[in-house]
Amino acid sequence: MSVKSDSSIYYVPHGSMIPTLATIALLFLMYGLSSWMNGGTNVVFYLGLVALIAVVWRWFSVVINESVSGKYNAQVDRTFRQSMAWFIFSEVFFFAAFFGALFYARHYSVGWIGGLSAEKYHTHELLYPTFEAIWPTNGPENMGGDFKAMGPWPLPTINTLILLTSGVTLTWAHWGMAKGDRVQLSKGLLVTVILGFIFLCCQAYEYYEAYAHLGLTLGTGIYGSTFFMMTGFHGLHVLLGTVMLLVVYLRVLKGHFSHENHFAFEAAAWYWHFVDVVWLLLYLFVYII
Amino acid sequence: MATVDTADHHDNHGHDDHHGPEPGIMRWFKTTNHKDLGTLYLIFGLTMFFIGGAMAMIIRLELFQPGIQFVDPYFFNQMTTMHAIVMIFGGVMPAFTGLANWMIPMMIGASDMALPRINNWGFWLLPAAFLLFLSTLFMSGGGPAGGWTLYPPLVLQTGDAFPFVIFSIHMMGISSILGAINVIATVINLRAPGMTLMRMPIFVWTWLITAFLLLLAMPVLAGAVTMLLTDRFFDTTFFSAAGGGDPVMFQHIFWFFGHPEVYIIILPAFGIVSQIIPTFSRKPLFGYASMVYATASIAFLSAIVWAHHMFTVGMPLAGELYFMFATVMIAVPTGVKVFNWTATMWRGSITFEAPMLWSIAFVILFTCGGFSGLMLGIGPADFQYHDTYFVVAHFHYVLVTGAVFSLMAAGYYWMPKWTGHMYNEKIAKAHFWISTISVNVLFFPQHFLGLAGMPRRIPDYNPQFAEFNMISSIGGFVFGISQLLFVWCLIKCIRGGDKATSQVWEGAQGLEWELDSPPAYHTFETPPSEELIIKHAPTAH
């Protein structure tokens, strides 16, 4: 009956319709997206999207309520930590697919089409004898028309500094959590969220520049493909991380979290640092080299 | 707080350990119970097994004789493509996840899976994904027909089905990743006190390692199919040389997923037969620790050998050599396993109940598939075999007489535990013998067809291949129909039969055999004692 005996038991929730509703919402979203791409209406997609956001909102509020009411013992906390860590591990491999594509294109396919190992491969002389293997490229058929590459200066470098700073402010917030200084905690979180938002704005401006002035689009051959898909998926992850940190910030304002119980904060922080590291790799391999 | 008889008693206490199943049909939609979800996964897997099987029957019907008899070639291509995806993602993988759900908590003395609601979501994503996927058959342009490997540029010619296929694969992938995270968290975090890693049943080990493979493989597939999607709809040129990309790049990314996927399908099968053979040999598993290390080695190697699927595609010579040597190296830990299964049976007091028969057939026939895999793994030889029926024979030996046979073994082995009744041994044995004979009639001649040069994924063929194809088709029809025996046996077993004891099998070791048959809705809410765990440890007989 006592709190002590409760904390020895792993919390197994009641049956719930939330996951099934999440499935239905996702089904609508996926079906809607597919028919939209096939030239149909986008109404089903937006319905599914709104439904999914609503269900996820509900799901998280249930979890937060359970957490605040003390149903999660230390073992449940460990489950959450491990699950988040392995989820981030799977995200690493999602990005690995795109980094793999970039490296393959730069080290193999562009060189082969461009005649760098002409004694072994004949694509160059048979199909594209005039194509030169240089990076960045939009390929032998000049896909998407003439373009200028997106250099590291100034916006991407500014963005790098913004993200690195946000990592520092987040750690500062974490220190606030550790010593129980909630003012430092909430200030640090707020600054981090704002920095994340500024990063996204800079990224949007960079895309605008690319489309409006550089002739660089998603259709600009393999360079445009890798550039926009990699920075785009990274940007989506920054957006998700910013939303996570914003929720954590609002929860801090509501008085949630304690020295012992702040998994959501740490999960969001880990995610943010992961997104940070991905950006450093992007900065190096997409912008600089 | 102290009142125990209020309706929301459980909520007040921050745990939830006494409630039974929800009444009515809603139980299955709302459930967070690992046994319910295990049942759902298994039933879903069995259903998909028959849908995919029906597609295989159409394929074998068309191939019964040379010439175009029954279906038009384009539909034939849809059948080969969808048969593969339905069987892999809909049949075998969910069935293994179902076994993980049912058995892992009971085997490690946990009260449930670590993330019960995520578990529910992971399951229900699958019917949704396959609703999308199968609905493409009725769309303009038909279902996907470019092969399950989705190679561009061919796959980009798919009709309206294309985005539906991509997004259904995304949903299957989300389901797999959620399931894998759940298994890892459960095994790492929810083991009963005293259940050390090296006291875990081998099935738990193989699933843990499989879960890591899922986490590194499925996101890469998601990336690959996303690039296909943008190549088709948003002008990217990842897989088109015109823009500096390369169709071969897709194959590398795809097989970085695809090869670990092969082991995702077979490692839990290894775990199952490693449970069953000791039971019916009445001996502990020979070389438990070496089994664990062999499983981990196979998993590691499986992630670095992908391009052996691409020997004829074009690759630098050093690449061919590396992928060839790394591939045949997998034979070493696999050999350890086959040796250990054999050594477990050596001088055992063996009885031949249905699960044991399926397991012994697994060892022999899977090894047969492994040997043809060695032949294919040798680059220069593969130039001859590539894309022939030899490959089809090879992977059906490892997937059907491997993975599916292990699932049948598992089904009969744990059916008394799940239902509380003994299955009908006569039907089970009939099912086994008819299946084992017919599956060899079905697939063995395909080796000869492949060596003689018959290409795969072709609805018509040279008349010189007629005899072997007819034999293969006859085997296929018998194998297909004989699977209904399993359904009959299963339904009979659910409805009644001799009452099963908790131990069920004389030689069975493991915590699940301490529980009633069928077990209570919630089990091990109080963890089992360390003495009990030690008594049941795989190394302590």
In words, what does this structure look like?
The complex is a heterodimer of chains A (289) and B (541). Chain A has 289 residues and is mainly α. Helix content of chain A is 73%, strand content 0%. Chain A has nine helices and no strands. Chain A has helices at residues 3-6, 18-37, 43-68, 74-113, 123-127, 155-179, 182-214, 221-253, 263-288. In chain A, helix 6 (155-179) runs antiparallel to helix 7 (182-214). Chain A starts with a helix and ends with a helix. With 541 residues, chain B is mostly helical. Chain B has a single domain (34-536), classed as Cytochrome c oxidase-like, subunit I domain (Cytochrome C Oxidase, Chain A). Helix content of chain B is 66%, strand content 0%. Chain B has helices at residues 9-12, 26-30, 34-62, 73-108, 116-135, 161-189, 202-233, 247-281, 288-302, 317-329, 331-345, 354-377, 379-385, 389-419, 425-451, 466-495, 530-536. The relative contact order of chain B is 0.10.
Summary keywords:
heterodimer, A: 289 residues, mainly alpha, Helix Hairpins, Four Helix Bundle (Hemerythrin (Met), subunit A), 2 domains, 73% helix, 0% strand, globular, B: 541 residues, Cytochrome C Oxidase, Chain A, 17 helices, disordered N terminus
